[in-house]
Write a structure and sequence with these properties.
The chain is α/β, with parallel strands linked by helices and 583 residues long. It contains 17 helices and 18 strands. The strands form four sheets. A seven-stranded mixed β-sheet has the order 1-10-9-4-8-7-6, sandwiched between helices. Strands 15-16-17-13-18 form a five-stranded parallel β-sheet, with helices on both faces. A three-stranded antiparallel β-sheet has the order 3-2-5.
Length: 583
């Protein structure tokens, strides 16, 4: 069900669902109706229900951010809204003009940037062509009227026919002109130039998709959608691979779009800049998934915190009342019955009073039991214990060594990284920042020993272990479970204790887990191996917003050395360690 939460207020009643007669109008973009509509959407993979009874309406001009724990169904809901999957039950209505940011670019590897941009502008060009045709038709009638003899009108000599033809041509031109204004036909080429520059990929002109990096392909896909300006836009982690300037440009561009937008993002600053509502897929106290909160992420965060506290208070109060009621059943009889035996000369009277006492006891017990039954049936469920990242006593990285544990000198990776010197002392916490292409990931790969530089040296202190969390974990086809991987490390008991994987997911194949869940498994494996130096490449990508906050605290408390490369503005703003800026 969908509930609307105004900022810092209690939820209102459930949103109404349009009946079948209204569904055809929902995707037309007309004033007062929604562009995207999902009603009672349910989907299961095998015996595992991912989404259950989801309702969501997104009108034009609204931008909804999807949040929730990893594996709760954010990406699945986006695929259902896009029509890439069909629900087991329920209805999804979408406009024909819908854009979806794919994890992989939908363009062939042989396509050039110019071809991608031309494809994005194809609809605009068609609108422009229609306008030109309408203008030519109207001009032709006007010219014919001007050249006709006095008293004559075209077509034919009938003035009514001529007037009707001209009115039809004028109406067609007005419609084409309005569509051109809406599509911003006269600004389309400039919009394309600004978008490529704003997302930092103007330098890829002339290249094919095959010649671009993964980040450049993602940004090209984003650019195509922004240039196209679809009636509805769906985005899954759109700020991955974006530096600060590009992320701010994207936020401004999406906020200015007139259509409906639904997005899933780990970027908390981006959710604050863009969203008009937040749709939380985590279950509520009533067990309902899918709650709509008014406002951006910061307002949602406060409302969610207050809601959780109220849930916990209500649960505790109800459990206390139930315990008191159950205890009262056992003590009622003793409180109202006689405490001494009857004397011989009073047995008859005692018996009459005893009957009354027994009746009173029975009535009170029944009343208490009825209250217990009512309260048990209506009580809120126990608030689920959230996954709280709890690394071992040493934190995310083990203490070890002294002085410099890892260093490099005069390192050169042609076209990717040049760094004269870097010394990491034991216990250092270092944040690596810089624009795209400045070499952040390359530096971590060099420090991990996964990439040998063409020039320079990398020195690792004896007895110091190094672990690297890469941006891509490549486990999407792995049939092994998290428990099996941790067992291989001899750390099966640590898996659940870390709070990174829910108990219901411990034995599920990795290929059935979400991208964020797989990333959590790999992070847990690294922490279980207790490296003295832990390298994290964009650690907040794809993970839940709750874990993103906990990661920052865990890094700060780690005994060992931790190096983080991150574009996450919220993460960087709260960073308390040292910083290295590349580029």
């Amino acid at each position: 069900m969908t509930h609307q939460h105004p900022p810092s207020s209690a939820p209102s009643s459930s949103a109404s669902t349009p009946d079948a007669a209204d569904l055809a109008a929902l995707a037309d973009g007309e004033p007062g109706v929604v562009t995207l509509h999902a009603a009672d959407v349910t989907l299961a993979y095998g015996d595992r229900t991912v989404l259950d009874g989801i309702d969501l309406d997104v009108p034009p001009g609204h931008r909804v951010g999807l949040v929730g724990e990893n594996g709760v169904g954010k990406s699945t809901l986006l695929r259902l809204l896009a029509g890439q999957e069909e629900p087991d039950r329920g209805t999804v209505v979408r406009p024909d003009d819908l854009g979806f940011l794919h994890q992989e670019t939908p363009y062939p590897l042989s396509a050039t940037v110019e071809q991608v941009v031309a494809d994005a502008l194809a609809e605009v060009r068609a609108v422009e062509t229609d306008l030109a045709a309408a203008a030519a038709a109207l001009a032709s009638l006007t010219a014919a009227d001007d050249d006709a003899p006095a008293g004559d009108h075209t077509p034919g000599a009938d003035p009514e026919v001529a007037r009707a033809a001209r009115e039809e041509a004028e109406a067609a031109y007005a419609t084409a002109l309005a569509r051109s204004d809406a599509a911003e036909v006269w600004d389309a080429d400039r919009r394309a130039e600004i978008t490529l520059a704003g997302l930092g990929i103007e330098h890829v002109r002339g290249r094919t998709v095959a010649q671009m990096s993964g980040g450049e392909r993602t940004r090209l896909g984003l650019a195509a959608l922004l240039i196209r300006q679809p009636a509805a836009l769906l985005l899954d982690e759109p700020t991955n691979h974006l530096d600060d300037d590009a992320a701010r440009f994207l936020a401004a561009a999406i906020a200015a779009m007139p259509g409906a937008v639904v997005l899933a993002s780990h970027d908390r600053d981006f959710l604050d800049e863009v969203c008009t509502e937040i749709f939380d897929l985590d279950p509520t106290a009533a067990g309902v998934s899918g709650t709509l909160y008014g406002g951006a992420y910061s307002e949602y965060r406060k409302a969610k915190r207050d809601e959780r506290a109220a849930w916990e208070r209500r649960y505790e109060q109800e459990q206390d009342e139930l315990a008191d009621l159950r205890d009262s059943i056992g003590t009622t009889a003793r409180k109202v019955s006689h405490s001494r035996d009857a004397t011989d000369n009073n047995k008859m009277a005692y018996g009459r009073r005893g009957d009354r006492v027994q009746s009173q006891v029975s009535r009170r017990v029944r009343n208490v039991q009825q209250r217990i039954d009512t309260l048990t049936a209506s009580q809120v469920r126990r608030p689920p214990r959230p996954l709280v990242f709890s690394p071992s006593s040493y934190g995310m990285a083990a203490g070890g060594g002294s002085g410099v544990v890892l260093s490099l000198r005069d390192v050169v990776v042609p076209g990717r990284l040049e760094l004269a010197a870097l010394d990491l002392t034991a216990g250092t916490k270092l944040l690596v920042t810089g624009p795209n292409g400045s070499g952040k990931s390359t530096l971590l790969q060099v420090l991990a020993g996964d990439l040998v530089p063409e020039q320079g040296t990398v020195t690792q202190a004896p007895g110091v272990g190094v672990g690297l969390l890469e941006q891509d974990v490549y486990l999407q086809d792995d049939v092994r479970s998290p428990r099996e991987l941790f067992t291989l490390l001899g750390a099966a008991d640590a898996l659940a204790a870390f709070g990174l994987v829910g108990r219901k997911d411990l034995d599920r194949p990795l290929r059935e887990l979400s991208t964020g869940q797989r990333r959590r498994v790999v992070l847990g494996m690294l922490v279980a191996q207790a490296p003295e130096v832990l390298l994290l490449d964009e650690p907040t990508n794809h993970i839940s917003l709750t874990l993103a906050e906990e990661l920052g605290e865990a890094v700060e408390k780690a005994l060992g050395t931790v190096v983080v490369a991150s574009h996450d503005r919220w993460f960087r703003r709260t960073w308390k360690g040292s910083t290295l800026t590349l580029g």
